[in-house]
Amino acid sequence: MIRIRTKLLIYFIIIVVLVNGVAFFLYDSSEDILDEYEASFERFLLLNEISQRTNVMVDYVNAYLVEKDKTYLEEFQRERNLLNENKRRLTEDIEKEQNYVLIRNYKNMLDSFVNECTIAVEAFNRGNVNQYSAHFNEATRISSFIQETTLSVLNKELSAYILEYSYS
Question: CA-based angle 93:81:157, to the nearest 5?
């Protein structure tokens, strides 16, 4: 027959194992939530960076067109390279099946924006006032569309985040 001490020891071990199992489950769940939160935050930062980068690029192109200082052109080219890197990250980090069309359009806007800025700079270097003015105005207009679309993408991301975690 099993003695009371042995029974108590077995019950104690079972309780400790169960408590540790629950603690591990809670820890693992919280780690998953933190990882998802961090990924969402990184996506928000990427979208914000893209939005700010387009504004900076418009400023550099405008400064180059007004002041004719090559420093602004070099800064524009550096920003263009960084924007292209951000666009690549956009595909990897944000594009999903449910937002594919929106992100595809967003990337096309970024391509059009960069193209219009580049054409404006090239036309300015050739001395074609009408062409560089028209392309710079178009780049400015596309930049405002990018700002609006960034807000739309952020809204969709936040809505999806709220839906996913409001029922958890």
Answer: 25
